[in-house]
Design goal:
nine-stranded mixed β-sheet, alpha/beta, 420 residues, binds iron/sulfur cluster
Length: 420
Amino acid sequence: MKPKNTLLSKSTCMQEDLDEPPPTGGAGLLSNGLATTTTSKPTEYFPLSEQSSQFRSIYFPGVPNDKWSDWKWQVRNSFTSFDSLEKVLTLTDDERGFKEQSLNLPIRVTPYYAALIAGQQNLQPLRKTMLPTMDELVMSPGEESDPLGEEHDSPVPLIIHRYPDRVLFLVTGFCSAFCRYCTRSHMVSKKDKMHAGTPQIDRAINYIRQHTEIRDVIISGGDPLTLSDERIEYLLNGLRSIDHVEMIRLGTKVPAVLPMRITQKLVDMLKKYHPLFMSLHFTHPDELTPETREACIRLADAGIPLGSQTVLLKGVNDDSEVYRKLTHELLKVRVKPYYLYQCDPIPGSAHFRTSVAKGLEIIKNLRGFTSGYAIPHYVIDAPGGGGKIPLLPEYLVGNENGEVVLRNYEDKLFRYPDYT
Ligand code: SF4
């Protein structure tokens, strides 16, 4: 890792987005931007990879392990502009001339995730998912700011009620990192990011309470794990007090971009609210660091069934070997590959979209060649609110003389009696 500059400017520090005030004491930034370590208090153990350790010693000298492993410190010290990123990355001409004001979605990268990107070429997969390029300013046919038409299905603020038995509960517009291809960029990009207050949350919970057909609540955002433990528990408590809510799901990218958020205290609280499922957002095997493995294992040890959601992205994971490696690494930390999504047509996302044939090819190269547990559902979320539509390579060739003709993973044909 080649050092660029050990002084980080104050512009890298964002405090206003935390849902609770930053803790007093501990590391701060001096007026020259140099990180300090005055009165840090010990926090619980969290592993520190070689990559993080090197990055921290170069760019945040003097910041001790416990501060680096404090998720609130990570959020406060996130990179939120090209100016701040230039301290740790060599920007391309394209990036250097960029006017961030023209972006739909601001920049936000945690120091932890920046360590995975630093020192890499601009074509490096993870970098592509976090740093905007000029391609993002190109609008293509079919792109819309709310491609899934969710705003039309919102009976009360924070709730999207499209399917009879389940609702989406969007509890915050804030994320610890902003993905350039985000389906909800129209929501997370808002300057006055939605922070749901208690009255709004209570109103949403009341809506769920009154609708006895709702048996499944998906807590999402933004990223719900950027809320405080107390706020998350308030939500879970409210939902668990409703008899007809059978299961709760929580969607998050935190284990990939802010793994130290998965504290023992958090998982001890979460496991009181079973059945609780989690959908974790991963894009590439490089995300499976020692820190992220620890986060996933803690969640799994708390008895939370874990599934991964991955968006198929050109130049990031649209390669059968890369995707297969991701699925294998996820299974090793007890995360079941759940969905592979075709990239939604948000404005300026054409450079991320692959052909549907590419997605089918990836699935075909998995089925039969690896464990069934490694194979996700490949889906297109139909524009305008049509829901998830699964796509499969053609294994059913046709019907002949009372038999179905099937193609297996080796492209061999088989017949099977079709009973009617
Ligand atoms: S973590 Fe999810 S909601 Fe947040 S920016 Fe990424 S894709 Fe969007």
